[in-house]
Amino acid sequence: MNTYDVAIIGSGPGGYVAAIRCAQLGMKTAIIEKYSTLGGTCLNVGCIPSKALLDSSHHYEDAMNHFEEHGIDIPGEIKLNFKKMIERKQAVVDQTTKGIDFLMNKNKVDVYQGMGSFKDATHIVITSEKETQEINAKNIIIATGSKPSSLPFITIDKERVITSTEALSLSEVPKHLIVIGGGVIGLELGQVYRRLGAEVSVVEYMDRIIPTMDSAQSKELTKVMKKQGVKFYLSHKVSAVDRKKNEVTVTATDKKEQEVVLKGDYCLVSVGRRPYTDGLNAENAGVKVNERGQIEVNDHLQTNVSNIYAIGDVIRGAMLAHKAEEEGVLVAEIIAGQKPHIDYNLIPGVVYTWPEVASVGKTEEQLKEAGVAYKSGQFPMRALGRARASGDTDGFVKILSDATTDEVLGVHMVGARVADLITEAVTAMEFRASAEDIARMSHAHPTYGEAVKEAALAATDNRSLHV
Ligand code: FAD
Ligand code: NAD
Description:
This protein has helices at residues 13-24, 40-45, 47-65, 82-106, 164-167, 184-195, 215-227, 282-285, 321-335, 364-370, 385-390, 418-430, 435-439, 450-461; strands at 2-9, 29-33, 110-113, 115-120, 123-127, 132-142, 146-148, 161-162, 176-180, 199-203, 231-233, 237-244, 247-253, 259-264, 266-269, 273-275, 308-310, 349-351, 356-361, 374-380, 396-402, 408-415. By secondary structure, it is of the alpha/beta class. It has three domains: 2-147 and 274-342, FAD/NAD(P)-binding domain; 161-271, FAD/NAD(P)-binding domain (3-Layer(bba) Sandwich); 346-459, Enolase-like, domain 1. The longest helix has 25 residues, at 82-106.
């Protein structure tokens, strides 16, 4: 039987990054993945394919609606080749997952393909179509991720009533896509299909989309996406989803208990994801799973069984690839005897619509609720020369800082490339910068980043230079 210092179950961004870090630290490491490709949700049916389709559909939308204003005339009709777009997405996924094979090989991590399940606290049985194997490991990291969740009365048939997984591989552009849930997945994939010509209706239970982000961001993104033609049904509770042949009927009730009936050809259910522990047999190792289905962990991401750890979507916290990665590194270093730390307040959140939406730290709602006295500085993208040059004038940067110390407490952005700009805010907050610190740093001109400096100037002393 093969024996390891560490065995990792699941090869998503949590698992594969943990494997690399364990190997770097000199541990004999194995990784177990039930699918034939590595990379988990993120690389196969999550972050990477959704961004490939967002980028492709963005090019199409530019060609259809914006080339002309830049003085680019395309003789003849612009035609969508959706099959090719999906094939390209798959090629990007294939290339990226092969990259993980390379990384495992380079770091001498043993890869086992098959379903991993606990025999006891130090033994894992790996079952594949070909064979059943057993390995022994001193330490085990559970990184089994998550799966789409649904509502009790909905049958996901994977053809017309679908999750993100199917929405990333459709064979046609829907005529009318009804999206249940105005969160990250619903908005990103809703925008993809809107750009490709579908009518898109988003039904959201709360009174605003992306309800966990700053309300100014919800407002701005709603405004822009409405302009793009997306219809929103906010404060609507879905009560039934019925499919008859190629037609899907979604019934919802609004705040006044009025029934709204929507008919479309596809319904995307994007109401969140659930931790995935099916078939893991965690109970054989004595590992506790809480009532939400998450593996229970302490601050060191250690389960109630001292040699077993858990990371990523299968434990508490934001379901984000970069959060899972940080946790993978943390656990590897803890097993190696180091004392690493993650500041969960500084894990940024991004929605990759266009304009993009990015956040770090506390929202204005959270500061109000906590009774923290704060200052707010905001700067509109439309006042930037760079934004006018590219034509991306929607959005803003908002900086919230402590009223007494001026320490930056939260940064919230909507606009072009803010997914990349948020890193500046994370860096500043990691070093506990004040708004004035950011305001006094030189930002290259002309860039979208100048909005960060200008918002910091606004927060410091209401002294933005360009509004
Ligand atoms: P996962 O990536 O889910 O990986 C878990 C792996 O474990 C899977 O491969 C699974 O097959 C395997 N597994 C499970 N059980 C077993 C078992 N018993 N034996 C063997 N293998 C097993 N996050 C971002 O930060 N940015 C984004 O842009 C983003 N976009 C997304 C878009 C979509 C459409 C979706 C669905 C998600 C997106 N996410 C994004 C979320 C991100 O994908 C997850 O947070 C991330 O993948 C979690 O990583 P993980 O390692 O915890 O688990
Ligand atoms: P989400 O939690 O982002 O959004 C779910 C939305 O559905 C919420 O707005 C919620 O209020 C709404 N909702 C819940 N129940 C409802 C109901 N009965 N009727 C109508 N609306 C309802 O979840 P998601 O969009 O499914 O994404 C799942 C996870 O994947 C998220 O945790 C997210 O972090 C991750 N993800 C991240 C990215 C990214 O980082 N860019 C992209 C995609 C997915």
